[in-house]
Amino acid sequence: MSEHYDAVVVGAGPAGSAAAYAMAKNGLKVALLERGEYPGAKNMFGGTLYSEAVASLFPAFWESAPLERPVVRDEVWFLDDSSAVTLGFTGLHYAQPPYNKFTVLRSRFDQWLAWQAQQAGALLFPSCLVTDLRWEGSFAAGVVTEQGDIFPASAVVLAEGALALLAEKAGMRGPLEAHSFTIYVRLTFSLPAARLEERFQLEPGEGADLVFIGYPTAGSIGKAGLFTNKDSVSLITGVYLDELVQKGASLPELAWRTRSHPLVRRLLDGAILEEYQAHMLPKGGFRQIPRLYGDGLLVAGDAAMLISGRHGADLALLSGQLAGETVAQAKAKGDFSRKMMAVYAEKLKNTFYYKNMQAAGDALDYYKQHQDADFLLSKALNGAAYRFFAERMLTDREKREMVLKELAGIQTPIKDFSDIWQGLQHWRVL
Ligand SMILES: Cc1cc2nc3c(=O)[nH]c(=O)nc-3n(C[C@H](O)[C@H](O)[C@H](O)COP(=O)(O)OP(=O)(O)OC[C@H]3O[C@@H](n4cnc5c(N)ncnc54)[C@H](O)[C@@H]3O)c2cc1C
Description:
Layout: E1 5-10, H1 14-25, E2 30-33, E3 48-50, H2 51-57, E4 69-80, E5 83-90, E6 101-103, H3 106-120, E7 123-125, E8 130-136, E9 139-145, E10 150-158, H4 165-169, E11 181-190, H5 193-199, E12 207-214, E13 222-228, E14 232-240, H6 241-246, H7 251-260, H8 262-265, E15 272-282, E16 293-294, E17 297-299, H9 313-333, H10 338-349, H11 352-359, H12 361-369, H13 373-389, H14 396-410, H15 413-426
The chain binds flavin-adenine dinucleotide.
The site of flavin-adenine dinucleotide (FAD) has 41 residues, from helix 1, strand 11, strand 14, strand 15 and helix 9.
């Protein structure tokens, strides 16, 4: 048995490292346990990290953190098989402090984050798979590792990510349900920086983030996206886990479908496939948030299903911080009971993301009832755009009627409007 800790944190992702950082900064003795060889070794996302949240914990983090590119170009592409209706914004102010968001490679960023916790005094234990919690009555009193080592502690923060097997074991949530998760494949292609910048119309150092709706998922609920790193491009494609099973779809095939789209293909021309990874993402929404606290126990980040829109890593960081601060308060009062731990849930309820998740509750139901919404909307928009941009020998009135007929031929304009409305909430969810 190792020495006693004030707190043990399971998982050195954004939630775990932020929790460990907050506690160590408050003078607590903290062990941060990570199953990977190093923090980030097993982690991946699209992805972009939203600056404001990170800066609230680490001001001017961009001066020391390993980031890829500040994103100045943000686009949504509604893809049909040979066309795209695009909606986008390029904002050059986002290339300057305090920035808006950065593309990031987690294998680098997570190490930096864990290092911040270590510098504050937390002890990091890599290659350390936690297999169980240690209990004293109803209180979580530490953890047990695969090697049989025991880490006794006054509090445990579960920040183990989407699968949350320990949270399930501890009765904080039920078994994993396929309809509450999406699964994503990420293909990473190397592309020299100068070529990448020329192709995406970026100045040196700037980044782009493109979301692809419609064609890539072939009728399943999901989406694809492309992110520019320093000298590589990440292409992700994902769908709901239950749909994958029900429709007998193949994720590698969907990923290749995205990569082979004629407009995506030209963005990747000459790029070399370097890496293939897959990862789950909790997407059950507000109603799937598990029990967040118990005696001596807190759950943070993806393990607590805290995903809102395209925000995930930043919310993990923020919820980890709140969990860490709550344990520090508990330590100051010498009270680790669930009544004290409930402060964490109260703090969460006042956050912007909890409120957003609450407000977005119905978007998921809508998409479950209209599984083809993205696909049909993309078809309708592209069909109408083909008519609109075609230079024909027609009167304006004839042209207008033709565009409207095209829209109505695929689905009613009211449903188009409804899909766009619901989609505004849903598309933000990767
Ligand atoms: C394809 C994809 C794209 C995404 N894009 C974005 C994006 O653009 N922006 C964004 O903000 N978010 C994005 N996300 C979501 C984001 O990645 C997550 O919300 C975030 O990583 C959650 O952080 P976490 O610390 O809770 O969990 P994780 O990052 O999953 O970290 C959990 C850690 O716990 C460790 N661990 C697990 N079990 C154990 C155990 N038993 N013992 C010890 N260690 C353990 C793991 O190795 C891991 O290091 C994306 C996710 C995916 C899959």
